[in-house]
Amino acid sequence: MKYGSFRPFTISAMLAVAALPSWAQFKPAESDSTAQQPPLLQPQDRTAEGQPKFSVKVNLVRVLVSVRDPHGAPRIDLNQGDFHILDTGVPQDIALFERHTSLPLSVAILVDTSGSTERELHYEEDSVLRFIPTLLSAGNPADAFALFSFNWRTSMEVDYTRNQRRAERALRGLHGEGGTSLYDAVYLVSDTLSEREGRHVLIVVTDGGDTTSYKHYQDALAAAQRADAVIYPIVVIPIPGEVGRNIGGEHALTTLAESTGGRIFYPEGFERIDQAFTTIIEELRTQYLLGFYPRGVVEEPRRYHPLQVEVSPPGMHVTARSGYYEP
User: Fold this and answer.
1) Half-sphere exposure (Cβ direction) of 122: Cα atoms closer than 13 Å
2) Domain extents in the chain
3) Model's pTM, two decimal places?
4) Which of 1, 100, 269, 288 is the one with CA 20 to 30 A from 25?
5) What pLDDT band is residue 292 in, cutting at 50, 70 and 90?
6) pLDDT score, position 143
7) Cα dihedral sign, 41-45-47-53
């Protein structure tokens, strides 16, 4: 798809119209490539005795895990036996284990363009432009990024691609205005990730919390968890101290990150945003991938399962999502 034919899609106050299906609210642009998903079922018509044979859907739950030692350095030498997973309090058998998983990354970058960012927006743009080539240079050749802007509405600026020039053109055209519909943005962008192959990441560059969303915090969290997306907020605060800051919004961003297996960053000044992006890259390149088939727990469609991931070496800091929803 040539750049000249690309048109961003915008979501605005129509989020309030409940009669519209979710796909009508946000229709992504055509992707550079189409991810092919494996079938959930492998049906066979009959058994050897000629009796009808029915297939049962078995869902592998994947969990991305980051482990850091007491000094904050990544712990990259753990084995499968060092990990323990509990689903709704029930221990599970780990059926899949990958150290430094190379599953392809789909990274959605969300840039806050609300009115409060107008003066310093170029710092965010420059850091994103430096992050993208680093992301694409040393990973899976199928890694891709997408770029979104959000203020009182959410706009897809660049669909999932490896084309860095598109990002540069889009970022240079951004400007700040309006309020901040953060929860709407997370809710809608999570949907663009849900059907993509591999790992899903949301990086949110913002200067504060939500002010104008139609969706709520729980809606955004549930959407991210259903999409198996890890959220990394980068909160850039030009105001020292707590006066004038949206402290409640920052706490919400912290719990969004922790509940999805990510972490929040507070760069000390706009010029240090690059360090946050560098740490995110490091974490994505050192993740463990664990998988299990749930057993001993109640299973029903759309049911939420709390998860707990533990490691045997004492003193380790483990980051993983707090739960998952059944399909």
Assistant:
1) 1
2) 61-99+295-325, 102-285
3) 0.82
4) 1
5) very high
6) 97
7) positive
